[in-house]
Amino acid sequence: MGRAIDVLGDRWTLLILRNATMGVTRFEGFRAELGIADNILSNRLSRLVDAGVLVRVPYRDRRRTRHEYRLTTAGADVLGVLHALADWGQDHTETSPPAAPMRIIHHACGSELAPGGRCAACERAVERDEVAWVRPWRSPDPMPLAEPA
What is the pLDDT along the chain (149 residues), one digit of tens a residue? Predict the structure, then answer.
């Protein structure tokens, strides 16, 4: 647990990974979604790359080469931790006014998933590409997870 906290325990890190799991790959996307300061975001992305959780992939914009940050297998495996934290937060914290919860669903059958990797409704092991998140404050439509790099 201590080694995991060394990698994932910095402020903003789990939110960056949550957004990476939902398909954000570019620095500007993380900054816009999270409202995080550039220096902190740059530091956290570098630490996640150094830890093997993200990989930097170059791309060319109009003027120069930039980098996307994509999940590695280790980064994709953080999904269970994120799911458990989301459930814990829903059960044990309050917002005012109450917020509609983020839901994690099995895209194949449409049922809500509990942490653990199996769908209780269809009794199947759930592959990563069959998982979607519903963020009701953004859209009622399920958003499939990003594919691991």
Answer: 999 999 999 999 999 999 998 889 999 999 999 999 999 999 999 999 999 999 999 999 888 999 999 999 999 889 889 888 888 888 888 877 777 777 888 888 888 887 777 888 988 888 877 888 787 767 777 776 655 44
Q: What is the DSSP string of the chain?
A: -HHHHHHH-STTHHHHHHHHHTT--BHHHHHHHH---HHHHHHHHHHHHHTTSEEEEEEE-SSSEEEEEEE-HHHHTTHHHHHHHHHHHHHH---SSPPPPPEEEETTT-PBPPTTSB-TTT--BPPGGGEEEE-TTT-SS-EEPPPP-
Q: What's this model's pTM, rounded to 2 decimal places?
A: 0.76
